């Protein structure tokens, strides 16, 4: 068989990725060969595939739900915004350059063909492909160039589910209004609705569900309850709260406090997820200098625009706060773009094209940006433990050992100078032994009475979360109806819903 289904949403962060991952997990546990697919993704959270390609992190998470390794075909077009108007365009895992909203439109036909080819190849290799849309299918100003939502559904004749987030309010208006704004040929493919993040008594929804079906001729195939612990591997910063992590993780009376600087173009903030599952660790995202004062560890995370975000750090006075921390021996960890900011000097003729600019000067390094992006899955060791990670960067930091302080030592691919650590490796904190050793070192430096839990296993936490997504689908969706859509395609003669004011 070669079945497929598209999951779209009324808005960004409505739950498309969660529903798609849950469907993947359900089908994989049923013994089917399943793969995820997202034709076009706009995200700053990405990973490196085994063959050296770059794709969105959400599709890698969905591949894990399927029990398979990720591949570039699962996300053939990835857009990585560097500002309000420009994005780096990654095609089948390889960066092709920058485009703005206007020039990108000129590439749509070629990219549509690329996406269609990737989907066809996945369908030839797997029993089922679960496709995820992007944003909302009712962005009517963009419909003519759409390759990820109804444009994809119509070209591949995909039955489509529309997901709405009831926690935001207005879910019935969102579902009905989204459908009504679609062209008749697009509406014919939307076969049902899914309501996400519901809290309360399900029977209170029944009158609304019945009216929605009478108005649209389409059933609601699932009402998914609110479930804590689904914060891992989110696709964009809409999933970022001030405090990150599961509400049930015990923090203790004297937690180890981690402050993560929320950069304007923050990328791969999923690096922090492994810290949030540690008992006794409190993780917060911050933007003000005073918020660093009580932190035991400050993390400068990755960024899509190192020099521009370094300007922002200075404008807010965070540079002064970081310097004072370093002078007092208070730990700072820079990851990728954050690591680059810690350098003495940055030479960037690629991203910002600003040439040579001063860094924060907290590490004895010089960063040089190269046109070719580094994509790798390195292995190494730190604190006596093996460490694996992945690299996605244009800027490479080189340590000037001749000018380094006597206490400067290697740290993964970077260095540690005093209490300041730097590495370009994403995903390093997911290594359990290394993470515990780093936290123990931080606790010792800050004189905290903190001992890392010996049995916290981040990979097991992720697997448990994926199983929880599969359980959501099994327990709260009409899986028989969903299976019919996957195997038989869209139902015949679905009614067309006229837009408001029509007729």
Automatic annotation (TrEMBL):
Residues 257-433 form the CobB/CobQ-like glutamine amidotransferase domain. Keywords: Cobalamin biosynthesis, Glutamine amidotransferase. PROSITE patterns: GATASE_COBBQ (PS51274), GATASE_TYPE_1 (PS51273). The active site is at 336 (nucleophile), 426. Pathway: Cofactor biosynthesis; adenosylcobalamin biosynthesis. Belongs to the CobB/CobQ family. CobQ subfamily. NCBIfam families: cobQ, PRK00784.1. This is Cobyric acid synthase. It comes from Lipingzhangella rawalii. The gene is cobQ.
